[in-house]
Design a protein that fits this description.
Blueprint lengths: L2 H23 L1 H13 L1 H21 L3 H8 L14 H22 L9 H5 L2 H16 L3 H25 L5 H24 L13 H32 L1 H23 L1 H9 L3 H6 L1 H25 L1 H8 L8 H16 L2 H7 L3 H26 L1 H25 L10 H18 L7 H38 L1
Helix pairs in contact: 1-8, 1-11, 1-14, 2-3, 2-8, 2-11, 3-7, 3-10, 3-11, 4-7, 4-10, 4-12, 5-7, 7-8, 7-9, 8-9, 10-11, 10-18, 10-19, 11-14, 11-16, 12-17, 14-16, 14-20, 14-21, 16-19, 16-20, 18-19
Length: about 475
Amino acid sequence: MSNLETDSKFLKKAMIVNIVGTILKVCGPLLTFVMARIFGAAEFGIFVSAQTLLLTIAHSATLGLDKGLYWYLPQNGLHGRPRYDGIMESFWISAAISILCTAVIFVGSFTPYISKELPWYALSLLFYVGTYVFSTASEGNRRPQNAVFVNSFLTVTLAPATSIALHFMGIPHALPLGLLVGQVVGFIVHFVLVRRQFPEMPLRPHKTVSWVLLRYSLPLGVDEFVSSFLIRSSLWMVMLFLGPEKAGAYGIMVTISNALQTIRVGFTPILTPVVAGMNKERLKTDLKPVYSYCVFMVTFIQLMIGFFIVLFPDLILGIAGKDFIVQPETLGILLLVHLVAGFGGMSLVVLNGMGKSLYSLIMDIVSLGVALLSGYLLIPTYGLVGAALSMLSYNIFAVICNNIYLFKMGLQPYSLRLLSQVGWIVALVAFYIAINTQVIVLSMPQKAGVYVLILLALGAYGLVVKKKMDKDRNAISSGSSK
């Protein structure tokens, strides 16, 4: 069996796991909508902002070592290192930094500069960090199902469910305490799963973290900090310019549109180790079929979810309550953001798999500048629509730059088979415009019927394109095996 065939089989299995994870992850946002209705737009807006700050700190505390494990663990066997090398070293460094950050927040809460509520959220920092390290360890060891179950289902459902229960029990600080319970349970489960994979792994490593892992990870660590600000910059600017109620409404729409982002992000730990295992010759021959297959599957699943959101936006937003139905056209722009990122954004995953972590950092710093400038210009004038347009602008900018870089290295990873995918994306955008401008007016039963027809058409289209892609890949495999 050729390397390309092995990679293709892994990608197909991982894709199934990713789809299951996406289905499971629906539970979390549904409970989040219920939580938003119970706690109200203002309090929920503060929760969303505090949680995004917490995620930024937690990701930064790992120094990128969690992301580095995607690339490092698959190479342990090739270089004669223990299978578990890098895991506990990464955990202890990340844990020490997270404890330091928690202490700073607690001390700072006695000053006028930090909210008295923030220390309650900071209690979750250590467990966030531990979850990141052990989750990526499983994924780097080609066990994506572990991360899918814990990250996509267990923690995201347990946290809001606990917050709701604590609220009705009359216990104060229900939102941060619910978050803490979800993260503690997720951390424990991840740790047990990693120990089962590496029973010989000592809890206290006998050496410091590898310089090879650190050199690759540090740019990713700084980039994690930058990209966390980048991803959440529009939400924070909405909070700044428009207030917590609008931030809560925008946070709900971001949560809904993130159903599309989840698909793309789920392929990062799948594609990265595959690209990392390719030499220069394989990059020239095998990258295109592998990458094109990933892009096809990501956008294919995104389209199925996207059409549902376009047809039933009021139904979805209504779960959270009428206070959150503000400028619903914003949702369509956010969908387009993730479709653009799904089609062209995985080029950055390829670059990281090739060891270009410093480039990722530089690119995200420049993109953050674009995001802040566009947000400053657009949000005060256009409100939530301006925030979504800000996200769209820096995503398009990054996709163009990343792909130019790949082309300059002599790599053209896109198959011509993907042109039809662009047509479907354009059709989704056109359908969204027609629905929202009332060029097309449909009743609820008609919408359901249209969605079924779209699914049937997408299914037939997917089978045809997948068959053609399999034929192209088999032709390359046959050629390389001769």
